Amino acid sequence: MNRAYRLLAAVSAAAFFACAHYPVNPELKQAPNPGYGYRWATTDIPTSDNSTFVILTFSGGGTRAAGFSYGVLKQLDAINTADGKKLLDHVNVISSVSGGSFTSMYYGLHGRQGFATFESDFLRQNIEKRLFQSAFLSPNVFKLLFSPNFHRIDVASALYDQALFKNATFKDLLAIQPQWHAPLIIANSTEVEMGARFEWTQDQFDPICSDLNGVNVSRAVAASSAFPGLLTPLILDAYRRCGYTKPGWSTTARGDVYVDPSRPRMIDELDGYTNTARTNLHLIDGGIADNIGVRAPLHAITSLDTFVEPTRHPDRTGFTIANALSRHEIRRLLVILVNAGTSSSVVKIDATSKEPSILAILGAVTGTPMENYSFDSVEELLSVFRNRAVEQQAANVANPTVYYPVILGFSLIKDDHLRGIVNGIGTNFSNLSDEQFNGLMEASKTLLSQDPCFQRFLMDTGATPVNAGAGQCAAIPR
Amino acid sequence: MYVDGVRCGKTNTAFNVQLGTHTFDLDIPDDYAPPTIVALIDGTPVKPTVVAFLPI
Predict the structure, then answer these.
(1) CA angle A161, A182, A81 (to 5 degrees)
(2) What ipTM was predicted for this assembly?
């Protein structure tokens, strides 16, 4: 009898845990409208004075990236601008990937008031250990065992809510934005099957007829940092009944393959997102598609193409500033790339004639294309900025826009000791030691202080303090 | 001046547009012809491409 009861109890428990399900993203119950949901057009940024426009990009790299980007935010908060504010108050957009998305999203929710808690609740916490405990040393293990609809990434997003985001949704993020003119936060992931970049804004949710307002921001951060293998892809449901129509440019630009192949490629992606056979999306680490988070801003600088059909009176578009640049409403564009990629000088594979392990080879196979693509992205940004300057000079534009690229990376740190400390921080979500934390703060300060283009921007805008000895910014023509 | 439905600049001024095929129009009032012009912008860094509307 006892055995029968035990069996019944076990079966009941298994059935109970088998019902566990990932949090479903809600369906969009209205026709897509650029005036609804968390996106560029619903923030107060497009209608504000954007004569000085500041974009930050935060790379991946676990807690190392989160700490480095946090250090940069704190440094910008220490710079006084000519209008009596801080440079941090002038940041308009943050595009982030993986570890950098923890910082960007927390900043979007809490602003500078969240600095202290971000350090104590995230940077100094061993999130990786807590994730392991939450997945395997709690009832979650039974959900993972018995439910086909509950995955390790769902444990991760729940933990991020518990530790950091307290169930805040994108609706909350949107409501907070105008209260302190917060930047637009774009957390980037990668759609597995299409290999496409996926931005967590309503612009991207329109084609799948889903309402981002009802989604916790922790889901975006989890998807943005879901490193393949360690974490499972985050699953979104795709719906088809909201009446989404593709924007007009997607018809005219389909044949532009020899003029600008990025346009037909983007149409391919849009076709993929609207393909009715695609009932779900599977999202992994944004670093796979763009590990430094620069592609979204680069596209917005150079292109009017978005997944959103623009409206007039009022003018609302998807995320683009190409129109504001063409109208010269943006007089100074500052883009700061915060790249926490490491440049280790430690020789491992080549220190022996032995065959490298499969893991070492897999690391190289996945890491090398990501690093090369990041390098190409930086080159492209610099090339766009340089060409714009040359074009404006050639056309004798009366009030040209000045483009300031700022590249922050550990390999630029001149001090061997400091460079060794920050390069030695692993790509994981372990807690930072005092030495590591202080090293990242010092690296942020040093890199901004020595960067000639950043210092040129400060001089041109009357901000203080300025390091006059930083040298000439070669990216800006004299 | 609207490009692909996005307000981009004023008539009789030069402005940057991504390379490719674009739809140009002047919005309201509808006192120019044609209502829209689809033109290929294929890379003219020094000499701008001219998209001409005529008053009606």
Answers:
(1) 135
(2) 0.93
Residue A345 has pLDDT above 80, yes or no: no
Interface residues of chain A, partner chain B, Cβ below 8 Å:
247-249, 252-253, 255-256, 259-260, 263, 302-305, 309-310, 312, 315, 317, 320, 322-323, 325-327, 387-388, 390-391, 394-395
Q: A355: which residues sit within 8 A by CB, 6+ positions away?
A: none
pLDDT surpasses 70 at A256: yes
A283-317 core/surface letters (b: 16 or more CB in 10 A; e: else): bbbbbbbbbbbbbbbbbbbbbbbbbbbbeeeebbb
Residue A208 has pLDDT above 80, yes or no: yes
DSSP conformation letters of A389-427:
HHHHHHTT-SSPPEEEEEEEEGGG---HHHHHHHHTS-S
Rg (CA), chain A: 23
Comparing CA positions, the residue from A442, A336, A448, A453 lying closest to residue A389 is A453
pLDDT tens string A80-136: 999 999 999 999 999 999 999 999 999 999 999 999 999 999 999 999 999 999 988
Q: How far is CA B19 from CA A110, A255, A257, A359, B41, in A?
A: 40, 12, 10, 43, 5
Kind plus residue range of the DSSP H or E element containing A104: helix A99-110
Chain B residue with minimum CA distance to A301: B18
DSSP secondary structure letters along A254-279: TTGGGT-THHHHHHHHHHHHH-TT--
- Predicted TM-score of the model (pTM): 0.96
> What tens digit of pLDDT does each residue of A282-314 get?
999 998 889 999 999 999 999 999 999 999 999
Q: Do residue B4 and residue A249 have CB atoms under 8 angstroms apart?
A: yes
Q: State pLDDT tens for residues B3-23.
A: 999 999 888 888 889 999 999
- Longest C-alpha distance within chain A, in Å? 93
Closest by Cβ to A260, choosing from B10, B14, B19: B19
Element (H, E) at A128: helix A127-136
The distance of A327 to chain B (nearest Cα, Å) reads 5
CB of A210 closer than 8 Å to CB of A273: no
8 A C-beta contact, residue A439 and residue A422: yes
Neighbours of B9 (CB within 10 A): 17
CA dihedral angle for residue A275, residue A281, residue A283, residue A287, rounded to 10 degrees: 0
Beta strands in A37-163 (DSSP E): 52-58, 91-97
